[in-house]
Amino acid sequence: MIDTLTSTLREFYRAEAPASPGGRVLELDGVTAFVTPTAPTQSILNCVVFDDHAALADGLEPLASAYRDAAVTHWMVWTLPDDAVGTALMRDAGHILEYEPMGMALALDELREPGEGPPFALDRAPHPVEITILNERANGEPPGSFGTAFAGLREPCFHRYLARVEDHPAACLVTFDHGDNCMIQWVATDPRYQRRRLAGRLLHAALLDARGRGMRTSTLESSYEGQRLYEGLGYRPLGRLGMWLTGDSPPELP
Questions:
Q1: b/e code 128-167 from CB counts within 10 Å (16+ = b)
Q2: Region 166-185: what's the mean pLDDT?
Q3: Where are the domains of the chain?
Q4: DSSP-derived secondary structure letter, 148
Q5: For a Cys-Cys bond, which of 51, 159, 165, 177 suits 170, CB 3.0-4.6 Å?
Q6: Keyword set for this entry (predicted)?
Q7: Range 105-238: architecture per CATH
Q8: Backbone torsions φ then ψ of 189, nearest 5 degrees
Q9: How far is CA 241 from CA 117, 127, 135, 216, in A?
């Protein structure tokens, strides 16, 4: 399933990146990079997926040049679980391990009930700006940090979900279908509405829809904090991915 996760991740970014003004996909031999100039400090939106270690080593210099030309200050490379060669390559190149999300997968016929919580209104067509704002708030980012990176979420390959509590946007997520796999991205809950099981119940509704579209599996990358939530719905760990931030990136301000 880790191959399914990474192939879907690549296609997700291929659909999302070009939709933002100035965004593009850079294809090298064995390496795919996604450039989002409207979110220059967001490495999650300026990232590299690779198939071949030698191709990545050869591509690091042109990749750095491409991101500099786009005025992107934070970009990173994904590595797979237990990829000792990729890890060594990143360290030798001066990249810094930014985060290690857990890759997770679920067979949709094994989806579990999410538990109970306060009521919310389910919106299956929220404006992409609402998804943007909730992700900025949930991640403690200044307003505008994600720029117009989510403009492409209007495309039919994406399915947007938002939970409204008393007409206020409270939690959101986005799904993306590739083959018979449904990838989950941009899960966020406004800090004011956390600990109400909103994200889990919203995701359950989205996964039921995915199963209705004929999807058989679901994959995602989980934060440390979110892993328990996903395991409660039946997701299983695949191992920790590496997010290797370029050493040229300036440090985040407190």
A1: bebbbbbbbbbeeeeeebbbbbbbbbeeeebbbbbbbbee
A2: 96
A3: 2-102+241-245, 105-238
A4: T
A5: 165
A6: Transferase
A7: 3-Layer(aba) Sandwich (3.40)
A8: -130, 130
A9: 31, 30, 21, 23
Encoded amino acid at 102, one letter: M
**DSSP, res 133:** H
The average confidence (pLDDT) of the chain is 93
Q: Could you give the CA distance from residue 76 to residue 42 in angstroms, rounded to a whole number?
A: 9
More confident residue, 203 or 139: 203
- What band does 76 get if pLDDT is binned at 50, 70 and 90? very high
Phi, psi of 21 (to 5 degrees): -55, 125
Handedness of CA 227, 232, 233, 236 (dihedral sign): positive
Distance CA 234, CA 232 (A): 5
User: What is the tens place of the pLDDT at every residue in 204-249?
Assistant: 999 999 999 999 999 999 999 999 999 999 999 999 999 999 977 6
Pick from 240, 246, 250, 218: nearest CA to 47: 246
